Amino acid sequence: MKHLSITLLAAAAIMCGCNGQKSASTEKVFTNPMIWADVPDMSMIRVGDTYYMSSTTMHMNPGVPIMKSKDLSNWQIAGYAYETLGDQDETMLLNGKNTYGKGSWASCIRYVNGKFFVSTFDQVTGKTYFFTTDNIENGKWERHEFRPSHHDHTVVFEEDGHIYMINGGGKLIIREVEPDLSGIKPNSEKVLIENAGLPAGENLMLGAEGSQMFKINGKYYLFNICWPRGGVRTVVCHRADNLFGPYEGRVVFQDKGVAQGGLIDTPDGRWFAYLFGDRGAVGRIPYLVPVVWEDGWPVLGVDGKVPETLDLPANGSLIPGIVDSDEFDGDQPKIVWQWNHNPVNSLWTMTERKGFIRFRTDRTDTLFTQSRNMLTQRTFGPKCSGSACLDASNLKDGDVAGLALLAGKFGFVAIQNDGDKKSIVMVNNQPEGNGGNTWPPRRGVQHIVASVPADASTVYFKAECNFERIADESAIGSHGADKAVFHYSLDGKQWNQIGDTLPMSYSLDHFMGQRYALFYYSTKEPSGYADFDWFRISE
């Protein structure tokens, strides 16, 4: 019944439009947000009639997701630029270290003379990276790296073959890149704009950053975001006739904190801006706004606002393009999955037992967040449900395995072995006070909220998330319901809620939206294994 169940689930998802947007069968236009899931720091290009978009990875691997669309509305993950970047203690979750809230983000994607370029940086390795391929969907990426790491950069390929990189925070710097992508040319660094946030005023809590450069009709347009005190994240655009300036700048968009991104055109000559907004625990989610040109300047939005709908094809379900169910029938997890930190490939397999993913351990851990080989994928709004089936018959004393919602404020439902007794537990890390919104993060907290006996070898888990909007989106810190509940079942039919409601939030100690996670760790002796039969995601 395994295959039949997922087929019916997928059919239901298509009928109802499981990303929370109206399905294409009932709604004929695009509805913002473009993707109601954590896809921040986008960089976008169009090659012929196909759009490609790169996004942020942070501590997840494989890294720099590459997404593909034919209509700007419906997207699917096409691949990743790299498997891992380094094997430091932080990235391998060794010696109590981790890289939560760090890693790589704000990539830049370009297409030049038949070749794709994706660049990014990594906070842990301290390096800048270029990945190149002539086949972005099925080709092998060639890797180039150098020190130091250049945060939030944009790359400019000039017609004369010169390559430049622009980035900064407030003061923007331009540097020339060696033609073989091996580093920055000596003595090439120049100040491009002394105070790029100035068009938004002098009282800024965040100087201009997140640079993205575009050359359109012979002019250079440089997009950045900044944040005026008492205001919202703001898009500033500078333009010049020469790459090195002089630049003139102005505020081009300031609505609901939707900002940071750039420009994209369609084959029929229309223009849009792709931006993202902070939307609570679900993460930072992409929006599209229309663009018209007046006196050589891009004018964003409809009357300066994010429109609810656009004259584009309807955006349907995020299943299976961005999130997906997995029956674990192949030899690799589906493309939507990412590992939390670097995987230890010798400790997981989908070939030892066909139709299952098996996790082993080679050490003991006491904290869920330090457990290795945690397999994750995005949650989505406005509501979503993820469930999993686990064969727990080979868990040993002290083992814990289950389904989590991974973030700075995490929670999970799991089966826990204690001697000769098994229990279903609901766990969260809500400490006293504000529960994870402090810096440095509080990660050493883990509470068993509820526990029920469970003398069973096969158990089922479910986590339901509600990200519906309940606040004024024009307000700073606007958020949704951001609540989750956990369930368990011993027969896959009768579900029982366990524990309390998990209050979710977005916090700097994680810097990603809430994610579903399958996990297994040992607290006493690493000698057992956990077999997950399937994971199913739905509205």
SSE inventory with pairings:
Blueprint: H1 2-16, E1 30-31, E2 43-47, E3 50-54, E4 60-61, E5 63-69, E6 75-82, H2 89-92, E7 108-112, E8 115-122, E9 127-133, E10 142-146, E11 154-157, E12 163-169, E13 171-177, E14 190-193, E15 204-216, E16 219-228, E17 234-240, E18 248-253, E19 259-265, E20 271-278, E21 284-294, E22 297-300, E23 309-310, E24 338-340, E25 348-349, E26 357-360, E27 374-378, E28 383-391, E29 399-406, E30 411-418, E31 421-428, E32 447-453, E33 458-466, E34 483-489, E35 496-503, E36 515-522, E37 529-538
Provide structural commentary.
This protein is mainly β and 539 residues long. The chain has a domain at 338-538: Jelly Rolls (Sandwich), CATH 2.60.120. The protein contains two helices and 37 strands. It has helices at 2-16, 89-92, and strands spanning 30-31, 43-47, 50-54, 60-61, 63-69, 75-82, 108-112, 115-122, 127-133, 142-146, 154-157, 163-169, 171-177, 190-193, 204-216, 219-228, 234-240, 248-253, 259-265, 271-278, 284-294, 297-300, 309-310, 338-340, 348-349, 357-360, 374-378, 383-391, 399-406, 411-418, 421-428, 447-453, 458-466, 483-489, 496-503, 515-522, 529-538. Strand 20 (271-278) and strand 21 form a beta hairpin. It is globular. The relative contact order is 0.14. Residues 1-26, 432-441 and 473-478 have low confidence and may be disordered.
